[in-house]
Design a protein that fits this description.
single chain; 2 domains; about 25% helix; 18 strands; Metallo-beta-lactamase, Chain A; about 300 residues; alpha/beta; seven-stranded mixed beta sheet
């Protein structure tokens, strides 16, 4: 099975604590690393997780509050000190390049690699990245500044051709890719061998949705429906719903309701307020609505 796993680098909210780092995650898709948000200390956490720096080429920033991007200048500088040559692509709402460019010009005057900034609109869902195996789409959220979550979705692969069928029907090598793509095979005497006899279905595709920061937004449901794994902020406990609304954040119950309504397979809650010392209470609240809920924690790895 191809690798598709999420590593939590930080899951705290804006106020620093001794327990949590600010928001950052890495999604490993077939050994390609995609960083999602880059709060302070992200590169340190990346090192602790023993993830390979040379496979990180894309960083996705949900919004321009500091606890979601203040780790970026340090990470870019470290790559420069290491003599990186591969391009780095940073995807974000409008404004990040304007803030980052003076820092890069002053601190990294002799860059060994190119950083490209790709700014996206937060108004409507859109595909902002695509390669041979994966698409990344935005999920518009409701926060104090323009904010988007991200939906990572694998593309369906080719069917798997059966080795014994190749031998049995003497299938030439030149025909194999067409058969994997769904074609039948025609024997020299005109007999058609249906594709279903020659192949097995493609590997299951995986999907992951990241939603932080946002107040309760039911419109999210259709955008994340049926995903294998959903991360949804749960900054506040249910009893602090008024605070959540005031600060444009979500409660445990609201995050769980999104997961339940969207019929996702698993929910992770995070972005915990520093006011809570017992996060098991937050987990219990969420599980009362959506049973298959887990707590984010630094160093946790969730396999899909």
């Amino acid at each position: 099975m191809e690798k598709f796993e999420l590593t939590i680098l930080g899951c705290g909210s804006a106020k620093p604590t001794m327990k949590h780092f600010p928001s950052s995650q890495v999604l490993n898709v077939r050994d390609k690393m995609f960083m999602i948000d880059c709060g302070e200390g992200s590169q340190l956490q990346y090192c602790k997780s023993r993830l390979p720096f040379n496979r990180l080429n894309h960083i996705f920033i949900s919004h321009l509050h500091g606890d979601h991007w203040f780790g970026l200048p340090g990470l870019i500088s470290t790559f420069n000190l290491q003599g990186r040559t591969a391009e780095l692509h940073v995807h974000s709402p409008q404004g990040l390049q304007q803030m980052m460019q003076p820092i890069m010009d002053y601190c990294n005057y002799d860059m060994t690699y190119q950083v490209y900034f790709h700014e996206f609109s937060t108004d409507e869902p859109a595909v902002i990245f695509e390669d041979r195996t994966l698409t990344v789409s935005t999920i518009p959220l409701t926060h104090r500044v323009p904010t988007c979550g991200f939906l990572f979705k694998e593309k369906e692969g080719l069917r798997h051709i059966l080795r014994d069928m190749i031998d049995a029907y003497h299938i030439p090598l030149a025909y194999i890719n067409n058969i994997k793509a769904g074609a039948d095979f025609v024997l020299p005497d005109g007999e058609v061998i249906p594709n279903e006899r020659l192949t097995t279905p493609p590997s299951l595709v995986h999907s992951y949705a990241y939603c932080s920061d946002t107040m309760y937004r039911p419109e999210i449901v259709e955008l994340v429906r049926g995903v294998d794994l959903l991360y949804h902020e749960a900054t506040y406990a249910a009893e602090d719903e008024m605070k959540a609304q005031k600060h444009y954040h979500s409660t445990t119950l609201q995050a769980a309701q999104i997961a339940k309504d969207a019929q996702v397979k698993q929910l992770i809650i995070g972005h915990f307020s520093a006011r809570y010392t017992d996060e098991d209470k937050l987990l219990s609240e969420a599980k009362s609505v959506f049973t298959n809920t887990l707590l984010a924690n630094e160093g946790c790895v969730f396999e899909v």
